[in-house]
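seq as requested:
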Amino acid sequence: MSNSLVIFVKAPLAGDVKTRLVPTLSLSQAAELYECFVRDIVRSMRRFKEASVRIAYQPHARIPDPSWIGSSLPYFKQEGHSLGERLSRAFVSAYQARAERVVIIGCDSPTLPAAYVSQAFRMLEQCDIVLGPAADGGFYLVGMSKFCPGLFDQVVWSSEEVFDKILFNVRRDGYSLRTLPNYFDVDTPEELEALWRSRESNGLDETAPLTSRCMARLFSRRRMAFSA
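struct tokens:
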């Protein structure tokens, strides 16, 4: 298939994922929540009919493969030290597999609409790069219709300048760009609370049922349930 969707996933090891949610959550609770994010995203996207879907997995010695997700989707290991290197190599891998248009998403937005992913592939028929801007200054989706070296040059990851720096690189190198609607990642306690407060409007119970149940359970344990 000419379209390739890649989902970036990390091993859900306590202390390695969602650490900015601490101390609102413990390290183990943050890892449990991340695991639910991943399973919900994969469950949603594995039914995506407009692209072949693969997982790009960042392993740990204790969790060397993504069998914990409970999905039969094919996977490959992420390669590279920085996120920019891992993203670039994932794009190269997809193009080597003869993809024409490649979209990469992470697992920080458990309610990400599949319609945004569809829109990204349609946009890539007319431009080099598609970005989905996140409210925190990063991005929730990046796509290319050809490999664009230099896109992630000198990006300071996990900063508020990620999106702006990538825009600078796009303009510097003369790539054509389209952007999707703004959406949100869930990295901080404030973003987690916003996800819970808007659960009816964002369809959390239907779109990300594991995440919804996990949040209710965790907050109930800590006597910190958020009101709607």
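The CA atoms of residues 133 and 139 lie 4 Å apart.
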